[in-house]
Amino acid sequence: MLHTQLEKNLHSHAFDGYDVNWHEETKTVTCVHTLSHADLEPGLNVTGLSWNSTGSTVAVSYGRFDHEDWCTHKSLLCTWNVDRKNINPKKADVAVDVSSCLMCVAFHPEIPAFIAGGTFNGEVQLWDLSQPDTPLLASSGIEDDSHRDPVSRVIWVLDPEGKGKNKYKLVSISGDGKILVWQASPQSKEIKLLDGFLLLAESMPRSMRKGRLRPDAEMGVTAISYTHEDKTLFVVGSEGGGVFKCSMNSSDRLAATHIQSSVPLKNPVSFAFTPHVGPVYAVECSPYHRNLFLTCGIDQTTRVYSMLQTKPVLELEPAAGYIFSARWSPVRPSVFAVVTGEGQLLIYDLAVHKVNPVCTLEAGSDKKPVYTLEFNLHNRQLLATGDELGDVRVWQLNDDLTLQDPGEQTVLVDLADSALE
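The structure corresponding to this sequence follows.
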C-alpha cells in the first residue's frame, strides 16, 4: 500500500509551479544584536564597520570626529562573531588597542582574520587577528610615504594583474588629498607603497571653486569606490563637495609639489560631476550597473549619478539631517540604505518608490547620529550600523529587501537611460 501511494505521489501535479523556500519567511526588519564594548573609552564613536570574508564576524573601528588638534586618544579595533550562540553584547570577542583614533577598517576579501585600518594620525595599519598575542603585522608609520591627515577610508581592490598573495591591493585615502596604493599581505608582514595620486583644486571646474582656492591646493579625499566591472576605474568624493571619476591608469604626473613621496604622485581625475554643497561622506558604485553610483553628504542629500553625465539622475532629500553613509544592497539591484544625523536608518527600494524610503528605523541610541553602515555580502539578511555613542546594531532584513524579483535590474537600466534623454 505504501509503495502504491508513493507511486501516485510521484506522478501527482498538485505542487506544479510551487517554488520551495527553505529559509524562514520574514516580513519585518528587526534588530537582532546591539553591541558595545564595556572597556571603551567614553566619548568614542563608531567610525567604521566591516564584515569578514565568511560573513560571520563584524569588525568595528572606534575614534572621534571632533578633534581640534593632534589625537591623544586611545582607541580600539573590536570584533564580534554574530554566529556564536553565546555572543556577549557588552564585550567584544577580540579587542585590539590602537594608539590613536581608528577612523576606518576593512577586512580582507578572502582571508577572514586579516584586516586593515587607518588612524587619525595618518597611519595605515595591518592586523592578523588569528595571532591574538601580537596581532599588529605592519604599519606605514608617520612618514613622507604615508598620510599627513586622518585616513578617511581603506579599501581592498582586486588587482587584474595580481597573483597569489598579491591578488589584492590596499588603497587608502585621506584629508591630505592623497590616494595611496599599497602592497600588503599576511605572509610578507609589511606594507609597501606601490603607487600614488593627489587630488588638487585644479580638478574642480573653475566655476565650482570657492573663494581664492589655489589650483595647486590639495583637496581632502573623503570617500572612494571602484566600479565592479573595471577595477582601474573609481569614483572619489572630496571635503569641498567635489565628485570625480578617476583612473588608476592615469599617467598625468603632477608638476613639482611640496609633498615628498618615493613614488610619483599623479592626477587621477578624468571627469568632474556636479558637486555636493560641503563634504561628501560616501560614494559607492552599483554592483548591478556599470554606470551608476551613489553619493551622500553634509548637504542632506543622497544622489544617484550616471558616469555619462555631470548632473545626478536622482536626488533625494530625506529631511533627516546630515547623511553620513550610503550603501547599495549586494543582492537587490534597486535597494540602497543610508544613515542620518538624526539617528535613522533609511532603506530605499527604487522598484517601489523613487522618493520615499520603504523602511525607516531608529538606529541611533538616544537618537544620536549614525555614522556608518555595511551590508553583509555573505549573509544577505544582515546589515550593521554604528552610532555616535559607540553602539553597533545588527539588523535582520526581511524577504522583501533580500529576494530579487525577475527583471528588477530594468529599474536601474531605466534610471541610467534617463541620463541619455
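The two ends are 68 Å apart (CA to CA).
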